[in-house]
Design a protein that fits this description.
- Residues 8-26, 405-416, 429-442 have a biased composition (Basic and acidic residues).
- InterPro entries: STING, STING_C_chordates, STING_C_sf, STING_LBD, STING_TM.
- This protein is of the alpha/beta class.
- It folds into three domains: 10-42; 50-173, no CATH class; 190-374, Stimulator of interferon genes protein (Rossmann fold, 3-Layer(aba) Sandwich), CATH 3.40.50.12100.
- 50% of the residues lie in helices and 10% in strands.
- The protein has helices at 2-42, 50-69, 74-103, 114-121, 126-141, 149-169, 176-185, 190-206, 210-220, 249-252, 301-310, 318-337, 361-374, and strands at 235-240, 256-261, 265-269, 272-277, 280-285, 291-298, 346-351.
- A five-stranded mixed β-sheet has the order 2-5-6-1-7. A two-stranded antiparallel ribbon has the order 3-4.
- Helix 3 (74-103) runs antiparallel to helix 5 (126-141) and helix 3 (74-103) crosses helix 6.
- The longest helix has 41 residues, at 2-42.
Length: 442
């Protein structure tokens, strides 16, 4: 009875320990998901097609109302409206074409063909011309929407001319949302260029060699060997939302101390022989005073965004700067996720500027990401039941010389263990010839 009671107590202790481990894992998983949700709440997502859906719904309801009120004049009204909407941009395109042909044909188009480059650039594309031609033909064949046919043509030309005038004066110019959507869709933002420059001119060159640099550093700094965890072997790229970067991390947080530099990496670049690239190692102290070493630095292109917002000639205010920082983060994250050279060698840390009152906010953010990297694998499903080896089950297969089986089989080792390498001392046997063993029935 004493042995069985001890086994039960030990089993209860193991179950309690397993529950504690899984509760700790669930807590870490919840913390990680909360951080991801907070981060997603800051980063703007690409715009979708909801405006198109609303526009199609409004058009369908309007056409349905016209069909219900006066179905006999439906085609005339639709043709006339389409003709107004296409003739206006065409007239405005002709105004733009006059400027381009007189003053910019050589400097901007390098003498390239009129039809292939200049007309599409002015909005005189084939789709617009085709829509206007079909609408004009439909209006000619259909019943005029107004009483007198002359009134239709007067309204048509007057509306088109006034559209071209208001468009040229900027009254009908694109909204900020449209400009932002065009710039993001065509990758024309300042943030897109800075992110690609940061990747192609720096990260893609240094990140593939980061592991070797850290290994060389650890070999020459044996005293710091225990402080390097798995999460410390990546480059921590700090991206503050306000783009205000300090050149020394210890100036931002007293819990961060500069330790040393990694070995220099020399690369021939753009005519400069042996251009030096280096990373700095910092020691970050936690609440208990324990040091955690890591390689961290700010994203250098953010200095460009910050100084642009300080120059009046750039036309770049604080709201635009914040938006560009978020786009820079999103673009750089997308670039690095698709880069085989940089995979698993970096960590982007977005720093919210709402916690500037905390003097140790930077060290806390770095430590939180380091701990997340250390425990980035979570058990999402309950562990499988560990099969216990029952002595009676293997008694029949035991050799005669096997020792007698004791009654403490409750303490048997679980069958699931860490994988080990097994080597066979037997000589390799040749592969057997294939043998046909299929039965054929006629």
């Amino acid at each position: 009875m004493g042995v069985e009671e001890a086994a039960e107590e030990r089993q209860k202790g193991e179950d309690t320990e397993d529950k504690g481990n899984f509760s700790d894992r669930d807590h870490r998983k919840h913390t990680k998901m909360q951080c991801l949700r907070d981060q997603d709440a800051l980063i703007p997502q690409p715009r979708g097609s909801l405006p198109k859906v609303f526009a199609a719904a409004l058009a369908a309801m309007t056409i349905g109302g016209i069909v219900f009120l006066s179905p006999e004049r439906l085609f005339g009204w639709v043709a006339m409206v389409i003709l107004i909407l296409t003739l206006g941009p065409l007239l405005h395109g002709l105004c733009l074409l006059a400027e381009e042909m007189l003053y910019h044909s050589n400097t901007r188009y390098r003498g390239r063909g009129l039809l292939s480059h200049m007309l599409p650039a002015c909005g005189l594309g084939g789709k617009t011309l085709l829509a206007a031609g079909l609408a004009g033909l439909l209006l000619y064949l259909a019943e005029p929407p107004l009483t007198h046919e002359g009134q239709c043509w007067k309204l048509l030309f007057l509306a088109s001319v006034l559209y071209a005038l208001f468009k040229s004066l900027g009254v009908l110019g694109p909204s900020e949302v449209e400009v932002s959507d065009i710039c993001e869709g065509r990758k024309m933002n300042v943030a897109h260029g800075l992110a690609w420059s940061f990747y192609l001119g720096y990260l893609r060159l240094v990140l593939p060699h980061l592991e070797d640099s850290i290994a060389s550093f650890r070999a020459t700094h044996q005293a710091s060997y225990p402080f390097w965890g798995r999460g410390s072997r990546k480059l921590l790229i700090l991206i503050p939302l306000n783009a205000n970067i300090s050149h020394k991390l210890e100036d931002e947080d007293s819990n961060i101390h500069f330790y040393d530099n990694l070995p220099n990496k020399e690369i021939d670049r753009a005519g400069v022989r042996s251009r030096v690239y280096k990373h700095s190692v910092y020691r970050v102290l936690d609440e208990n005073g324990k040091a955690h070493e890591c390689v961290a630095e700010y994203a250098t292109p953010l200095l460009t965004l910050y100084h642009m917002s300080q120059e009046s000639n750039a036309g770049f205010g604080e709201p635009e700067r914040r938006q560009q920082v978020l786009l820079f983060y999103r673009t750089l994250q997308d670039i690095l996720e698709h880069s085989l050279e940089c995979r698993n060698r970096y960590k982007l840390i977005l720093l919210n500027d709402e916690h500037e009152d905390d003097p140790h906010f930077l060290s806390k953010a770095i430590l939180r990401h380091l701990q997340q990297q250390e425990k980035e694998e979570f058990c999402l499903t309950p562990p499988p039941q560990q099969e216990m080896v029952h002595p009676l089950a293997s008694a029949s297969t035991s050799p005669p010389s096997a020792p007698p089986i004791k009654d403490d089989w409750h303490h048997a080792e679980p069958m699931s263990r860490e994988p080990t390498l097994m080597f066979s001392l037997e000589k390799p046997q040749p592969l057997r010839e294939p043998v046909e063993n299929t039965d054929h029935y006629h």
